[in-house]
TrEMBL record:
<dbReference type="InterPro" id="IPR005110">
    <property type="entry name" value="MoeA_linker/N"/>
</dbReference>
<dbReference type="InterPro" id="IPR008284">
    <property type="entry name" value="MoCF_biosynth_CS"/>
</dbReference>
<keyword id="KW-0479">Metal-binding</keyword>
<keyword id="KW-0808">Transferase</keyword>
<dbReference type="InterPro" id="IPR001453">
    <property type="entry name" value="MoaB/Mog_dom"/>
</dbReference>
<dbReference type="InterPro" id="IPR005111">
    <property type="entry name" value="MoeA_C_domain_IV"/>
</dbReference>
<dbReference type="GO" id="GO:0061599">
    <property type="term" value="F:molybdopterin molybdotransferase activity"/>
</dbReference>
<comment type="pathway">
    <text>Cofactor biosynthesis; molybdopterin biosynthesis.</text>
</comment>
<keyword id="KW-0460">Magnesium</keyword>
<dbReference type="InterPro" id="IPR036135">
    <property type="entry name" value="MoeA_linker/N_sf"/>
</dbReference>
<protein>
    <recommendedName>
        <fullName>Molybdopterin molybdenumtransferase</fullName>
        <ecNumber>2.10.1.1</ecNumber>
    </recommendedName>
</protein>
<comment type="similarity">
    <text>Belongs to the MoeA family.</text>
</comment>
<dbReference type="InterPro" id="IPR038987">
    <property type="entry name" value="MoeA-like"/>
</dbReference>
<comment type="function">
    <text>Catalyzes the insertion of molybdate into adenylated molybdopterin with the concomitant release of AMP.</text>
</comment>
<keyword id="KW-0501">Molybdenum cofactor biosynthesis</keyword>
<dbReference type="InterPro" id="IPR036425">
    <property type="entry name" value="MoaB/Mog-like_dom_sf"/>
</dbReference>
<feature type="domain" description="MoaB/Mog">
    <location>
        <begin position="182"/>
        <end position="325"/>
    </location>
</feature>
Length: 411
């Protein structure tokens, strides 16, 4: 049998760009805005209304004409939030006004109630008038005006973006449909969580970890496995994942006799796009694609290494960016912060590394245990620290690129 030509591992950025270019674009759906949390806008958000639609008071007090300062005035009515004053203010008149209430016609000034005294309908200035007189007025369109572009395509909808879309008049927003992700644990040594273990077994922790990482995105996860190290079993697992937009496997991606993800992919007719990336941990990462009848876009299969830290790091660098790209994110890749080291960082090796670390808000400490098979360090880390291949030793205080991890550390 001819061995496949062995390409050198791809540089990280090249591998990420190739994977993102394969991301299946999902059909667009119009979802109720209040239910679109975590989705990405599939079109720019444009205001359909003006906010505020009319000038409002920002404080509780009295609306009046600044030309009449320093008073006195006669209070002729009230403007409360949702209940505007119907008339027009004439010279010498004032209207009781509350925060968020419409400015009456003719008024151009709000006097704080703390700066005046009222006796029946008589109102007198006791403090300092506002400077400028319009200080406590929110003009019409202060926030946005109808037709204003508010958010670009690819913006993630969090709480504030949902508030803006609702305020801008969008009861529904265009977003992709939810993504279908299949996560396959593979390895003869794996047992499902909760099962009694023999000494040669370990709990299958990667699948739940990867599903949890995807949970913040609009993704429905199908968990498969643990699947034994047999070609037919892996091919059957891949077959049961045929409806998924994206399949993520963990384990069996390396060069051992029982590393069968690659042959299984070939057995189910997938095309391997690339295998191996020059990063540590995570080198044996595998990317393939398969087309199927009735499928608009080929399914992407991402084979992550089995070592838990390798799976965790590659899920941050590849799985989440792939999911975000498929969901229409403008910026699918994570961006680093640059933070000072609390300790010297030893020289780099032959691959770009992602060390498990802890940022305490001031500086970054590297975890003493960097074995890619260790789970405790990924659970206490709140950041990944990037060290370039061949980097010289970096002294304490040097700024290094770090990637913050959600739910990281003991916080
Ligand atoms: N001769 C070589 N050996 C290895 C190489 C190499 O280049 N030459 N690469 C090493 C690197 S780097 C990595 S990373 C690992 C990855 O191997 P696999 O992706 O084939 O993973 P497995 O061998 O199946 O498992 C590795 C390790 O992880 C544990 N594991 C697997 N799945 C899970 C899971 N779902 N939950 C928890 N733990 C899991 C598994 O028990 C093993 O301990 O290969 C090196 N070898
Ligand atoms: O690249 Mo492997 O992921 O070092 O352990």
């Amino acid at each position: 049998m001819n061995a496949p030509p062995r390409q050198p591992p791809l540089p990280l950025e090249q591998a990420q760009a190739r994977l993102i270019a394969l991301a299946p674009r999902l059909p667009i759906d119009h979802r109720a805005t209040a239910e679109a949390l975590g989705h990405y806008l599939a079109a720019p958000l444009v205001a359909t209304r003006t906010q505020p639609a009319t000038a409002l008071s920002a404080m509780d007090g009295y609306a009046l004409r600044s030309a009449d300062l320093p008073g006195p005035w006669t209070v002729v009515g009230e403007s409360a939030a949702g209940h505007p004053f119907a008339g027009t203010i004439a010279p010498g008149q004032a209207v009781r006004i509350s925060t968020g209430a419409a400015m009456p016609a003719g008024a151009d000034c709000v006097l704080l109630q703390e700066d005046c005294a009222r006796d029946g309908a008589a109102l007198a200035l006791t403090g300092t008038p506002p400077q400028p007189p319009s200080r406590h007025i929110r003009p019409a369109g202060m926030d946005f005006a109808a037709q204003d572009p508010l958010l670009p395509t690819g913006t993630r909808l969090g709480a504030a973006q949902i508030a803006l879309a609702i305020a801008a008049g969008h009861g529904h927003v265009p977003v992709c449909r939810r993504l279908r992700l299949a996560v396959i644990d593979s390895g003869d040594e794996l047992a499902s969580a909760g099962h009694a273990l023999q000494s040669h077994q370990i709990p299958a922790s990667n699948g739940p970890m990867l599903a949890a990482m995807a949970a913040a995105l609009p993704v429905d996860v199908q968990r498969i496995g643990p699947v034994p190290d047999r070609l037919d079993a892996l091919a059957a697992a891949l077959d049961s994942a045929r409806e998924a937009d994206i399949v993520v496997t963990s384990g069996g991606a390396s060069v051992g006799d029982h590393d069968l993800v690659r042959p299984a992919l070939e057995a189910v007719g997938a095309r391997i796009d690339f295998w191996r990336v020059a990063i540590k941990p995570g080198k044996p990462l595998l990317v393939g694609q398969r087309s199927a009848e009735g499928r608009a876009a080929p399914q992407v299969i991402l084979g992550l290494p089995g070592n838990p830290a390798s799976a965790y790091v590659t899920a941050h660098l590849f799985m989440l960016p792939l999911l975000r790209a498929a969901l229409g994110a403008a910026q699918p890749l994570p961006s680093p912060l640059h933070m000072p080291l609390a300790q010297p960082m030893p020289a780099g090796g032959g691959r770009t590394e992602f060390l498990r670390g802890h940022w305490d808000g001031v500086s970054v400490t590297l975890d003493p245990l960097q074995d890619s098979g260790a789970i405790a360090p990924i659970a206490r880390a709140n950041c990944l620290v990037q060290r370039e291949a061949g980097a010289a030793m970096q002294p304490e205080g040097s700024k290094v690129p770090i990637y913050l991890l959600e739910f990281g550390g003991f916080a």
